[in-house]
Structures are given as C-alpha cells and as structure tokens.
Amino acid sequence: MAVIGEFVKKAIDVYGFIASEPDPAKAQLAVLEGLLTKAKLTAFGKKHDFNKILNNVDIVEAFQQAVPIHDYDKMYNDWWHYLLEGHQNVTWPGGQQYFALSSGTTSTSKYIPVTDDMLDSIRKAGIQQVMSLKNFDLPGDFFEKQIMMLGSSVSLIEKDDHQEGEISGISAGNIPAWFRAYYKPGVEIASITNWDEKVRRIAEEAPGWDIGSLSGIPSWIEMMLKEVISYNKLNTIHDIWPNLQVYTSGGVAFEPYRKSFEKLLARPLIYIDTYLTSEGYLATQKRPDTSSMALMLDNGIFFEFVPFSDDTMDDEGRVKPDATVLTLEQAEENVDYVLLISTVSGAWRYMIGDTVMITDKQRSEIKITGRTKHFLNVVGEQLSVYQMNQAMQTLQKRFDIEIEEFVVSAIRKNGEYINKWFIGSNRVVDGQEFATQLDTELRELNKNYNVARTKSLKGVEAEVIPVEKFHRWSEEYKKLGGQTKIPRVMKEDDFLDFEQYVHGLS
Description:
- By secondary structure, this protein is of the alpha/beta class.
- It has 3 domains: 3-7 and 139-277, Rossmann fold, CATH 3.40.50; 18-117 and 298-371, no CATH class; 385-504, Alpha-Beta Plaits, CATH 3.30.70.
- Helix content is 36%, strand content 22%.
- The chain contains 17 helices and 19 strands.
- The protein has helices spanning 3-18, 24-39, 43-47, 50-54, 59-66, 72-84, 116-131, 167-173, 186-190, 195-205, 218-231, 258-262, 385-399, 431-445, 447-453, 468-477, 492-504, and strands at residues 98-101, 111-114, 146-149, 157-158, 163-165, 183-184, 211-216, 246-250, 270-277, 280-284, 293-295, 301-307, 326-327, 336-343, 350-360, 365-371, 403-413, 416-425, 457-466.
- A 12-stranded mixed β-sheet has the order 6-3-7-8-9-10-11-16-15-14-12-13, with helices on both faces.
- The longest helix has 16 residues, at 3-18.
- The radius of gyration is 23 Å and the shape is globular.
- The model is unreliable at 1-11 (pLDDT under 50).
- Residues 387-492 form the GH3 C-terminal domain.
- Pfam families: GH3, GH3_C, GH3_M.
C-alpha cells in the first residue's frame, strides 16, 4: 500500500480524532456574533444597528427583530445591485471580486456575491468533507488518486472590477496549489465552455488519468461517463479507472439516478451527498450509514428555519413577514422547513429557496426536501419534491425502468385542474397505467394530496418519454453541464411550452 497514501489517511484519522464536532447552539451563536461584528460598519450593518444587536442580552432575538427576511429580489434590489455598480462595504466589508451566476431551476440569472471570506469558508468545508472520509473505511492508496470535478467553466466573465461565473467554476479556479496535482480534468479542459467539446476532451484524456473519485451533478456526471465509455470502447468506467471508489453528489438528490448510474460501473461506489450552493457550502454527508448531510455549523453561515406551511408562505413562495422563525436549537426533526442563511458573503436572513428536513438533531443532519417555488400546491396537493422522488423510486421498481428526470404541473383541462407529468426514462411504458400507479403512490405518501384528489384535483395524466428529450430541452433553453438543474415543478404556461417542445421532437 502506498506510503504517502497511508500517511495522509493516518493524518486524517488523527485530525478527525482531535477535532470533535462542535456544540450546535454554541457554534451557531459564535458564528452569528462573528458575522455581526465583522459587518457592523458596513452600510447594511449601520442600517440595522448591528452594534445595538451585539449589546443585547439575546443576540439572536434582537437580530431577528431588527433584520427582515430577504429573498434574492429584495437582497439585490435593496443592496447587492450597489456591489455590481462598484460600491464597497455594502453588506460585507470591502469590495467584490466575484459574483456567482446562479443557473438552477429559474430562467433568470442571479448575481450572488462571493467574498474572499466565502471562498475561505468553502475551502474549509471541503477540508471537513475530506476529513470525514475517515468514517468510510477507504484504503490508504485512495488518497493518492485523482479527483474528477465536473463543474462549470473556470474561464470566468471579466467585468470592469469583478469576475462572474458559476460557483463551481469560481471554486475550481481558487483551489489550493497543493490540490492541483490531484484535480482533473485540469484548468485547460475545465475552461472550455462548450459542453460537448469539454466532454469529448475528457474522453480523449481519460486513459492517462487514475481517477479515485468523482464530483458533480448526477445527470451530467452520468453523461460524461457514458461518453468516456463509448469513446474508449469500454464495458464499464472501471475498465479505464479501476481505482474509482467514491462519488460526491450535489445539486439534486442522487437516489433517482442510482439505477442507471450503476449500470456504468463494475461495482458500486461510496456515495457522499453534499450541499454546495451559489450562496455557500452548507452541509456534507459525514458518515456512511445515512444519506443525510451534516450542517457546517462553525464555518461562517448562520442557519434559521421557517416551518413550511400555508401560514408562513405567500402565493409567490416567499416567507411572510410575521412567520415563525426558529434556530437550529429550536427546530424539530421530520418537519419541512424553509432554510434561511446569513453568511460571510453578506447574505442576511436570506431565503435560499430550498426546503429541508432535520433528520437527526443531535448530529445537525438534514435532507433537502424540495424548493419553495417548486412545491406543487395549486389546488391543495402540497407535494414536495422529496415525496415525488420517493414515488419515482417505487415506480422504477414496479415498472422496471430508470427514471432520471421528471416534471409536473397543475394545468387546466376542460375547465378543471389536473396534474400532468412528463417522465424521462430509458424506455417508454404505458402513460395511463403509469399515471394510475403514480396517483395511488402519492395518495399513500401524502394525506393532503389524497384530500385534493377527492375535491379540486380532478385527474392525473403522465407521458413517459426518452430522457434525451429532457437533455435536448435543457441544452436549447438553458445550458448543458455545470450546476444546471431541470425543474421538477413548472408553472402552467412554462409547462405547456415544454409539452409543445417535446411533442415537436422526432
């Protein structure tokens, strides 16, 4: 076994033994105090009197009373647009070198500030993730292998006083010098903006690499692996990368992709979920006997939780001003919450757009359950993406198919609402039978959906289509690769446009 690899492994074991997990309440209070102290002389800190908050007996309560909840539009319109115009000390000390362009499930680009402190936070989170590998019983030589990080282009857009790009590209462009020897596909290939060209170059170079782990969004990692296998005339990816042992997933739930993903392997990998967003690295899976992720409690991000219900959310998917807001200490397990974050990039009580569920409070572990605006509740269905994924996993087994993508909308038919689904699969099955089974499964998973089906939700329809049609739509209307995600829920007009597009494909 490699000497260097064994040394690294032992160093990780020792560090992990010494570095015990922080007390959640104390760690989060320290983070909030640190955020307020550092930002108290910014325009935002002066506006909301951070000095007064810091002198309060209950800093958390004072903070929640003084600072309003922000979604992106409010944060940008009130504050962040000044950063794009070149102003300094707006929501965080200093100027602004990077903006992350979000490319999730919304069509409009968002400009998220990425400060030097946030880049440090992301690097520290990455180290925490590496240190947690001690829990996964990996051999020493694993730590000498290369890491394939498939993200957005590291070739950023140059503006007068800052650079713009996706967070994965910004992060990859700022990796430590010592890590570059392990990083693949390397800066040259990672700078390529055309997805097809980038993947072809990876396929060409693949025989010369010794990849031990993969990192990236499941659908795009899968497409890359297929190209490498096809180009090099392989049976599985292990024919060319025999030491591949770990896949670090992010962006979306991995489980719906597992069945098709594992067809590309000679043996299953160790799967590790992460929660890296344009706004920061929020959580990572730290142990093998769960798919939940542990929040980064002491790394420049303060978390708050809003119960996800009609009482707390308005019709636009925003948190109501009078909504109940809880700290991690106050929140409960197995409840859907809207996540708020305050960060070292100058996001304050910021609604990131995700809903999460605390699965283990003692370990501060969570699962992502959906998006606030991709929660289907037009006629009382109250379906989360988490429940949709659960149903899809069941139907994969029942129909013996692979379901990689899906999208749903509440649309009007003959004057009444139905739920219409498009299912992206490896083979087509009868849509009517699929819809019947899906409806039954969702009724069992969600009592509110079951009630809606007896009242205002008059039917369920489904079309099972080749998953390539989703990819072609993504390529044409959004962009392929990087952090791009296909929405699970669409508004009616957008859904009808999508339906027209896929019906127009041969």
